[in-house]
Design brief:
- The structure is a single chain.
- This protein is an alpha/beta fold.
- The protein is built from four helices and eleven strands.
- Helices cover 15% and strands 22% of the residues.
- The strands form two sheets. A nine-stranded mixed sheet has the order 1-11-9-5-6-7-8-4-10, with helices on one face. A two-stranded antiparallel ribbon has the order 2-3.
- α3 packs parallel to α4.
- The chain is globular.
- The two termini are 16 Å apart.
Length: 229
């Protein structure tokens, strides 16, 4: 079969009953039908299983829509896929320590090493290595972060989408989530809690993350992946 890409990299954490979640909201899956039950009531004619899901919009590998921080912002049902399936620009910030800001200078240094610029209509994909700590210890707050001046600078460069293995981009010491607000009020969506980003080092790829088309939705878990050229 012809493929216009050489590799598909799955960037998504699996979802499961009781999985960790930044808001502490229960993530629950429970059976509606079971194989044993349907076999019993159908006299062995059918065997099916299905489950109900109780999920927060913002859990696991997920996307934040502008509506999350802007009451007049675009909701999930109105997001264009042109914003969510875009070329990725990869940045390796695994050298950053917990509670350390990822600065404008960090991005400029990374760009200088590759001789590139941040291109309009691209996803800025930031790898910090914290995907290896997902769900462990104080992972929610023990991480680097993106300060608001860096966030504004990335908007000025024309970034369409921000994606990272971090559970949050904001300063863990600031509960007001100002980086969230800066990007979402500018119409820039975010994808958080990616994994397997180490497989994208040195590669060109198309970043893809499509949420459910939920009316008035502020966010949604996604199956994020990269199509490597």
């Amino acid at each position: 079969m012809y493929k216009p890409f050489s590799q598909i990299v799955d960037l998504t954490h699996e979802m499961y009953n009781g999985m960790p979640n930044i808001g502490g909201v229960p993530i629950t899956f429970w059976p509606v039908e079971t194989h044993a039950g349907t076999m019993l009531y159908s006299g062995g004619k059918i065997e099916m299983e299905s489950r109900m899901m109780l999920l927060a919009e913002h859990c696991g590998t997920h996307l934040d829509a502008p509506r999350h921080c802007d009451p007049s912002g675009t909701d999930l049902s109105k997001l264009s896929l042109d914003q969510l399936i875009v070329p990725g620009q990869f940045f390796d910030f695994t050298q950053k320590r917990n509670l350390e800001a990822i600065t404008i200078g960090d991005f400029q240094d990374a760009l200088a090493r590759t001789g590139q610029e941040i291109k309009p209509n691209t996803a800025v994909v930031c790898w910090t290595g914290r995907d290896k700590d997902w769900g462990k210890g104080q992972w929610i707050k023990e991480r680097p972060f993106i300060p608001t001046d860096t966030a504004l600078w990335l908007i000025d460069q024309g970034m369409t989408l921000f994606a990272t293995d971090l559970i949050g981009m904001d300063d863990p010491a600031d509960w007001t989530w100002q980086t969230h607000a800066v990007w979402l009020k500018a119409g820039v969506c975010m994808v958080q809690q990616l994994c397997n980003l180490d497989q994208l080092v040195g590669k060109e790829f198309l970043f893809c993350a499509a949420p459910l088309k939920i009316r008035d939705g502020t966010g949604c878990p996604v199956r994020a992946f990269a199509l490597v050229q």
